Structure formats: C-alpha cells, structure tokens
Amino acid sequence: MPDKTSMEKENILTSLGAKVIRTPDTSVDDPDGVFHISRKLAASIPDSIILQQFKNPINPLAHYHITAMEIFDQCDGEIDMIVIGVGSGGTMTGVGRKIKELLPNCTIVGVDPVGSFIAEPPILNETTLKYTEVEGIGHDYYPKTLDKSVVDYWIKVTDKESLHMARKLHREEGILCGSSTGSLMSGALEAARNLKEGQKCVVMFPDGVGNYLTKFVSDYWMESKDFLPRPNIFKHWWWDITVSNLSLARTETISLNMTCGELSSMLYSQGVDVLPCVDQNRILQGIIYAKDVTCKLLNASITLGDPVRRVLSQKYRKITVNSSLGELSHILERELVAVIVEENGKYYKLQVGTVEDE
C-alpha cells in the first residue's frame, strides 16, 4: 500500500487479518513501488493471487454489462452526459463503451486530478506537481484496462477544488463522499455548462467518507496542507514572524547510496530519531524515521544490505524559511518533525525542527 494511502484503509485491512506493507509513493516502474513489491510477495507466498484490477479484462466487462445498464435503466435511456474518473480504468471503459453503443450522442467526460497524466491532449497534464492528495483516481501511467477512445474530452481538477467540493457535499447535501467524488463533482459542474436546460448529466460517485476521517474531513489536516487558513486563535504576537528569524542548527543528512545497515549505525551513534535523505544534488527525497528502520528490520521486511530508499517516508511537513512561526507551531502541535527547506537555485539546504521532550 503506498504511503499516501489513508490510515483508515490500512486499519480496515488489518482488522480483516491482513499484514500491510507500505511502499514509497513512486512511479509504476520503481522496484520498491507497490506494483513490484506486490508481485514479489505473490511469488514468495504459496497460493497467493493478485486480482490485477488494472489489467484484468473482466473489470471493464463487469461495468459494461452491469453498471452501464443500471445507469441506462434508472435514467429511462435519457442521458446526455456522464462524468467519470479513472482509477483502475474499468468504470470508464465499461460504462463508456456500453453507453456509446446505446446512446452515441451521449458525451463522456473524463476528470483527472492535476498532477496525474491520464488526460488528453498531453498539454492538459503540464504541471510542476508530482503528487496528488486525492486518492483513487489519477496516475502517472495508463492502466491497461483503460480505453481512452470512449472519452469525448477531459477536465483537470486541483486538489483544493476537489477537497472543498467533497466537504461541501457533506455539509450541504448530506452526501458523505470521498475525495475523488469531490473531483468528479467539480468537473461535472464545469462540464454541465455545455448542457442545455432539461438535459441530464450523470456523475459517478466512487467512494465514501469512511476512508478519510483523518484526512480531508479534519480541519487540522486541511489547514496543515494549506487548503484552509490557520487562525491565530490565541492572538500570539509571534504568529506572523517568519522562520528565517529562528536560530536553527544545520542537521545531518543521509545519502540515497547508503545501506540500511549504515543508516542504522548512524542513527544509533548520533542518537537521533529522524533524518532527511537527499540525492546527489541535495534535493530532498524523503525522511527516515528510526522507529521505521527498527520495525522493518525486526519483521524482516528489509535487510541491512538494502538501500535506504526502502525505508524512505513521505509523511512529513515541508515549509520554507519564509513560512510563519504560526504555521510551524501548527505543525509541531501534532507532528514529530517539520523540514525547513531553504531554496537556493536548484539546490536545497535542509534544517529539521523537532518536538523535544521537556
């Protein structure tokens, strides 16, 4: 399961008796990513199976024969537009193909998060973002189940638009949906501008709120991700002072070339709980938590000879020297570490502020 996946999803699987292994949020080709690790586990665990939802042809067939027909029947065959996102690609392909056969003039609109590379033409995907907070839709690859020819046009939606729309649906409509539903509803409102009065638009709501109670449902989480402002409730005089006014010692960093054994020795000898990891250009790649290294060594999910990227975590908050002390305080109220990044051209100098015991 990728690091960005909510804790609720992990907890549900754990309660069902599963052992959950977290992987970095990396590309589909990364040997430490979720696809490679799952194949490796399947090869080593007797009688195991991977359902292969991203390339199993039965996936779109189920939506072709069942989901599409349910939509058609419920709408009495009167549908002018359908708005769908791409997770595995099964819904888009199955529903899109069937509805196009039944209603050739129905417009199929694809919604894709900014930071994903599914939409066409490719110019729509141009962005500096490499990460999306919305879960369940959007990828940096094309699922083999996806037939993009059924899509008439694509709409890109930002994380902020998606999450605020999902919360609006909770508050105003009583629909307790997930983040990807916010994406689709935002895209649908934009697409519906092309409809005439009386025409029907169907929006596929793919997820419920239960998997995201500690994420976008939480005001704190929304504030920590800059999707909501952080109020200075207690009127602290230092709230708007910038981090650059603090005296912070430089922290040690670790290289991607280190092994887990070398890392373990370094953490023990220096007595630190967390260290940032950088590449050869000193660009931040992630954070190493000592407890993660210890746990993974003890349960044999890593060896001392493995590269440190096997224990890299993306679960940290990154701020700049121009961020306010209010923002830093807000982070350290609940989280162990904040990484303060001072940008100088393409290079980064790293500092780490941590919560220390009194």
How are the secondary structure elements laid out?
Layout: H1 7-15, H2 34-44, H3 58-74, E1 81-85, H4 90-102, E2 107-113, E3 153-157, H5 159-173, H6 179-191, E4 201-203, H7 219-224, E5 254-255, H8 260-270, E6 274-278, E7 284-289, H9 290-298, E8 317-320, H10 325-332, E9 337-344, E10 347-354
Parallel strand pairs: 1-2, 1-4, 2-3, 5-6, 8-9
Antiparallel strand pairs: 6-7, 9-10
Helix pairs in contact: 3-4, 5-6
InterPro entries: CBS_dom_sf, Cys_Synth/Cystath_Beta-Synth, TrpB-like_PALP, TrpB-like_PALP_sf
Domain Tryptophan synthase beta chain-like PALP: 1-207
Pfam family, one: PALP
Descriptive notes:
The chain has helices at 7-15, 34-44, 58-74, 90-102, 159-173, 179-191, 219-224, 260-270, 290-298, 325-332; strands spanning 81-85, 107-113, 153-157, 201-203, 254-255, 274-278, 284-289, 317-320, 337-344, 347-354. A 4-stranded parallel sheet has the order 3-2-1-4. Strands 5-6-7 form a 3-stranded mixed sheet. It has 358 residues and is of the alpha/beta class. It starts with 6 loop residues before the first helix and ends with a strand.
Brief summary of the model shown:
This is Tryptophan synthase beta chain-like PALP domain-containing protein. With 358 residues, the chain is an alpha/beta fold. It contains 10 helices and 10 strands.
